[in-house]
Amino acid sequence: MNIILDIGKRKLEGLEINIKRNLTTNLYQYLEDELTTIYDDALGYVIDQTEGKLDNLPQSCTYTLEQLLDINYLPENL
Fold this sequence. Notes:
Layout: H1 2-22, H2 25-49, H3 65-69
């Protein structure tokens, strides 16, 4: 399972770099407006894929879009 998370993390880092480089004002605003929906969809996907084994995930996104797009951002509680 750790290998899957590592691969996913690397893909997300690459995606973050690409999004940040190509981010337009309209896209940024769209992502900001849709962050709750995007998180809800992602949470549902993770729960489905792990067959509910990850039951301690936050029910709402605890990060801002700016934090999510900042490749150098690390939460203090890690």
